[in-house]
């Protein structure tokens, strides 16, 4: 079994924060985002389709919108994480409802874990994450060393 090597990267002061919510959790995310508006306004915000449209209206902030989650938006965010173009993920998922795109959701959460980005799955963890002293400062963290990975595969 091969082991992956790691290297250090730096999360920037201005984070790229992805915001996602399942249908039954959208109102929770909207209310939470409204309470956290001042903190969120200092960062670049991304979201899956419908969630992004609702957030943009409610917060009156620019939101970079992917397509809807079930149509591939979760996978778009996952690709951005793998490209190191998303720094944090706030994903209010519904633990009581099975989703038709569950494999995409699992893949999104897996890639967030692989690339070691902070993930919040509910209001409490999102409050802690945005309350962190690290939110508005650069922060070193461990990521997979992709060049070493590729060299080992050659």
TrEMBL record:
Enzyme Commission (EC) number: 4.2.3.3
Catalytic activity: dihydroxyacetone phosphate = methylglyoxal + phosphate
Keyword Oxidoreductase tagged: no
Leader sequence residues: none
Active site per UniProt: 74 (proton donor/acceptor)
PROSITE patterns documented for this protein: METHYLGLYOXAL_SYNTH, MGS
InterPro entries for this protein: Methylgl_synth, Methylglyoxal_synth_AS, MGS-like_dom, MGS-like_dom_sf
Record keywords: Lyase
Residues involved in substrate binding: 22, 26, 48-51, 68-69, 101
Domain MGS-like residue range list: 9-154
Top EC class for this record: lyase
Domain of life of the native organism: Bacteria
An MF annotation (GO) of this entry: methylglyoxal synthase activity
Pfam families reported in the protein's UniProt record: MGS
Entry's Gene Ontology BP terms: methylglyoxal biosynthetic process
Keyword Lyase carried by entry: yes
Gene Ontology terms: cellular component: cytosol
Family from the record: Belongs to the methylglyoxal synthase family.
Function text: Catalyzes the formation of methylglyoxal from dihydroxyacetone phosphate.
Protein name per the record: Methylglyoxal synthase
């Amino acid at each position: 079994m091969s082991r992956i090597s790691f290297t250090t990267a730096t999360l920037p002061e201005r984070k790229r924060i992805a915001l996602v919510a399942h249908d039954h959790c959208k109102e929770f995310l909207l209310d939470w985002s409204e309470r956290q508006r001042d903190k969120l306004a200092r960062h670049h915000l991304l979201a899956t389709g419908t969630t992004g449209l609702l957030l943009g209206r409610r917060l009156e902030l620019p939101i970079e919108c992917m397509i809807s989650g079930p149509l591939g938006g979760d996978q778009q965010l996952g690709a951005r994480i793998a490209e190191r173009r998303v720094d944090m993920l706030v994903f209010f998922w519904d633990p009581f409802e099975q989703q038709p795109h569950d494999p995409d959701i699992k893949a999104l959460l897996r890639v967030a874990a692989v690339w070691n980005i902070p993930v919040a799955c509910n209001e409490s963890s999102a409050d802690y994450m945005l309350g962190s002293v690290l939110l508005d400062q650069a922060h070193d963290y461990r990521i997979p060393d992709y060049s070493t990975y590729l060299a080992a595969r050659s």
